[in-house]
């Protein structure tokens, strides 16, 4: 592709997606996301790159929703799935990182009881309890402004 005298290759475009994805991932997850990608890259480097580029470099980077709203949607979807507890825990922690309160996260999970059933919501609440406990331990046992 030719752009104002500068030739951009497909690899350059992909690297830009990757850098943008790392920046957004850091905003969402802090260093936790970087650690997940680094561990994954040890045995599945192509998948690790896709994990950064597509969700974070392409979708999360879109300006139409903020990171709080995206984490609300993600927590709701993962709770409703009922089969993705590790990812749900990551995104509950990310929700706290982008400014959701414990109370807001609990409400999102409780809302899923209506649409996904009580078992999915109960599993989501168990994941939230685990994440909230770790978060409290890492941050001196205090609350992050939430009510649950």
Write structural notes for this entry.
The chain is an all-alpha fold. It is built from 7 helices and 2 strands, in the order ββααααααα. A two-stranded antiparallel sheet has the order 1-2. A hairpin with a 2-residue loop joins strand 1 and strand 2. The radius of gyration is 17 Å and the shape is globular.
Short description:
By secondary structure, this protein is mainly α. The protein is about 75% helix and about 5% strand. It is built from seven helices and two strands, in the order ββααααααα.
Our Rg estimate from Cα atoms comes to 17 Å
Outline, from the CA principal axes? Answer: globular
Strand content: under 5%
Secondary structural class = mainly alpha
Considering the chains and any ligands shown, give keywords for the structure.
mainly alpha, disordered C terminus, 148 residues, globular, disordered N terminus, two-stranded antiparallel ribbon
List the helices and strands and how they pair.
Elements: E1 2-3, E2 6-7, H1 10-29, H2 31-43, H3 45-60, H4 67-81, H5 85-97, H6 102-116, H7 118-138
Antiparallel strand pairs: 1-2
């Amino acid at each position: 592709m030719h752009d104002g005298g500068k030739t951009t290759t497909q690899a350059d475009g992909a690297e830009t997606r990757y850098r943008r994805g790392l920046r957004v991932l850091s905003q969402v997850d802090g260093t936790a996301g970087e650690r997940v990608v680094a561990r994954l890259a040890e045995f599945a480097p192509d998948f690790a790159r896709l994990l950064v580029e597509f969700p974070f470099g392409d979708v999360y980077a879109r300006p139409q929703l903020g990171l709080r709203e995206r984490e609300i949607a993600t927590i709701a979807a993962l709770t409703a799935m009922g089969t993705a507890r590790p990812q749900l825990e990551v995104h509950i922690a990310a929700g706290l990182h982008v400014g959701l309160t414990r109370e807001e996260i609990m409400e999102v999970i409780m809302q899923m009881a209506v649409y996904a059933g009580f078992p999915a919501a109960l599993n989501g609440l168990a994941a939230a309890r685990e994440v909230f406990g770790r978060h409290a331990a890492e941050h001196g046992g205090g609350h992050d402004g939430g009510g649950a």
